[in-house]
Amino acid sequence: MRLSFDEDFSTLDVSSWGPGTRWIAHTPWSGDFGGARFANPGERSPFRIEDGTLRIEAKRDPEGDWQSGLLASVDPDGNGFSQQYGYFEMRAQLPEGPGVWPAFWLIGKDRSKATAEIDVIEFYGDKPDGYSSVVHVWHRDGRHYSRFHRNAVFVEASPGAFHTYGVKVDRNWIRFYFDREFIWKTETQPEHRQPLYILLNLALVDGPTRDATPDPSYMIVDHVRAYRLD
After folding, report:
1. Which of the listed CATH numbers 3.40.50.200, 2.60.120.200, 2.30.30.30, 2.60.40.10 matches domain 2-228?
2. Which pTM value belongs to this model?
3. What Pfam families does UniProt report for this protein, alphabetically (predicted)?
4. Could you tell me if 123 and 105 are in contact, meaning their C-beta atoms sit under 8 angstroms apart?
5. What whole-number distance in Å separates Cα of residue 132 and Cα of residue 113?
6. What is the rounded distance in angstroms from the CA atom of residue 198 to the CA atom of residue 189?
7. Fewer CB near the last or first residue (10 Å), C or N of the chain?
């Protein structure tokens, strides 16, 4: 495979909505979610570069509302990085504690008939023994396809240490990896046979656990990379 996207977070090129930046700070379809507002870059930016890593901070703002951060690799007009097939990876430290909900995921660029989603990792801080990987197809007519796997990897390892979370997508299979070791696979759906773009975020669960979330909480990201299948 050939390296096609390499974000080492020596700097951060982000704007609220683009165009012309590597990242934007919201989902391109403006469907932000969870129990914290995804904040724009600026005076209250949730993003900080520290020693070649990205720190995403979830905290209460001066008004008492939770804010945090999300990055997406395309803007609302589809400008930015996306790729059909290949390997996508994030190396990160995850926050611990109730309410935190960090994620690394992919979305298909064409959402006209269905939304193709691959959740490489969804970590819930109140379930610290592992994380979830999920494949979704959300059809416009209300049908929903889903395949779920619970990865109980933190029995000996720690989510607060750096680990790599990856997925390899080809025409037939979607394969998931933890620290580059194979975890599980599921069949590629027709809706996933298209360019996929990258999202990563530190969200909060919109529920009672949010009241016990450590304030502030941090997700530290060392790199995000993609490799093309040749």
Report:
1. 2.60.120.200
2. 0.97
3. Glyco_hydro_16
4. no
5. 26
6. 18
7. C
pLDDT at 209: 86
How far is the CA of 190 from the CAs of 45, 167, 176, in angstroms? Answer: 38, 17, 18
Contact 94, 70 (CB under 8 A): no
Residue 142's Cβ-count burial label (10 Å; 0-12, 13-18, 19+) is exposed
Would you state the pLDDT for residue 139? 98
Alpha-carbon gap, residue 88 to 27, rounded angstroms: 18
Pick from 132, 115, 104: which is nearest to 223 by CA?
A: 104
**Pairing status of strand 66-72 against strand 53-60:** antiparallel
**In the chain, what are the domain boundaries?**
2-228
pLDDT at position 156: 86
In the chain, the amino acid numbered 149 is H
Tokens coding 103: 């994620």
Euclidean distance between CA atoms 46 and 54, whole angstroms: 10
**Cα distance between residue 188 and residue 179, in whole Å:** 22
Contact 101, 203 (CB under 8 A): yes
End-to-end CA distance of the chain: 6
Angle formed at CA 12 by CA 7 and CA 13, multiple of 5 degrees: 95
Helical (H) or strand (E) element with 48 = strand 47-50
